[in-house]
Write a structure and sequence with these properties.
Distance between the termini: 19 Å
Structural class: alpha/beta
Helix content: 25-40%
Shape: elongated
Length: 353
């Protein structure tokens, strides 16, 4: 099942260490590094742009992006005359003209076009240095061990990306296992926090809802339901539902059986050995009820047909953490999850995905 994996991901499991150095771009054509494409570290950029005032570079970038001194001044919360004076000083320092002011609109000169990408990288590197220093002072640094269940993979990846973007100094160790095994790791202090689907965990652990994932029916193309776009769960009382071993997916099993009981029947079930299809049972004779992320990682020898349920059911994707773990690191992870959740709700207008 999508939540049954016991082997690490090939894409990002093991030791996920992302030390982001924004603006770093190294390109080797086989003839050495081009001077304009060497790694854009603060030291490298300082050598390229010696003695420049960072504030004036910010002003330049604002004018270049807005194509207007008026809009740039509003964006920077400064007066237009002071902005114009700063740009003039920058031009004198560089001994070039950056903007053609003869037309109604601000036009970048060739010098400005060349300067703009480097200026952006200098500002980004400076901002990262400031953020890193502040985060260290505030204690937001260290190693965070994260568990991710396969069925929560699609929800977890944006959270990990958001965390490393906001806190590049945090080192992540990411492990994928079935939810049941991750809960055991959490209680044994082998991981600090997990992202899981339908998590069944003991009391005394912190929890936070990330989102609700729609439960879909995945069937073999020869299954009688394959021609349907939508099916009522009550119609499936004679179907055989695939579940996992209780040691691996207790919460998922409970959710599937609970959905069926709410629909008025106790389901017939067959146990899947991990990510593989149940042995000894013809695939057109069983169905899987799971979110899309979980089905996508199953090793099936056929392309499943997706059928929606009416009314829809949802699996809970949650964060679960040890209350004794590093509070600063946990709070940073939770904050990243909240940011992602808010963006997804704003994009879809709903909690489900």
């Amino acid at each position: 099942m999508g939540d049954f994996a016991r082997e690490p991901w090939s894409c990002c499991i093991g030791r996920w260490t992302r030390r982001i150095e924004r603006g770093a771009e190294v390109m080797d054509s086989g003839h050495g590094l081009s001077p304009l494409r060497q790694a854009a570290t603060p030291d490298r950029l300082a050598a390229d742009l010696p003695g420049l005032d960072l504030r004036r570079l910010r002003y330049f970038v604002a004018v270049a992006e807005e194509r207007s001194f008026t809009r740039a001044a509003e964006r920077l919360y400064v007066t237009q005359p002071s902005l114009s004076i700063a740009i003039r000083k920058l031009e004198r320092e560089l001994r070039v003209t950056l903007f053609d002011r003869s037309s109604r609109h601000v036009v970048l000169t060739a010098a400005a076009e060349a300067l703009l990408p480097k200026a952006r990288r200098v500002i980004a590197a400076a901002d990262d240095a400031y953020t890193t220093a502040r985060n260290v002072v505030e204690g937001i640094a260290g190693v965070l061990c994260v568990g991710v269940s396969p069925a929560s993979h699609n929800a977890a990846m944006p959270i990990l990306s958001e965390l490393t973007r906001v806190h590049p100094e945090i080192e992540l160790e990411v492990r994928q296992e079935a939810t049941g095994l991750l809960v055991a790791d959490l209680c044994a202090h082998r991981i600090d926090i997990l992202v899981g689907a339908s998590v069944q965990a003991p009391a005394g652990l912190g929890r936070q809802l990330v989102r609700l994932d729609e439960a879909l029916l995945a069937v073999h193309p020869d299954n009688v339901r394959a021609s349907r776009d939508v099916v009522a769960l009550e119609e499936l009382r004679d179907e055989t539902f695939v579940i996992g071993r209780d040691a691996l997916t207790p919460g998922y099993n409970q959710a599937v059986i609970g959905f069926c009981l709410e629909a008025g029947f106790a389901p017939t079930t067959v146990v899947s050995p991990g990510l593989l299809a149940p042995p000894g049972v013809s695939p057109e004779r069983w169905v899987i009820m799971m979110n899309r992320s979980g089905i996508e990682v199953m090793q099936l020898d056929f392309e499943p047909v997706w059928v929606r349920l009416d009314p829809p059911r949802y699996f809970r994707i949650e964060l679960v953490w040890r209350l004794g773990a590093d509070e600063e690191l946990i709070d940073s992870f939770r904050s990243a999850a909240s940011s992602v959740t808010q963006r997804e709700r704003g994009a879809t207008g709903t909690e489900s995905s």
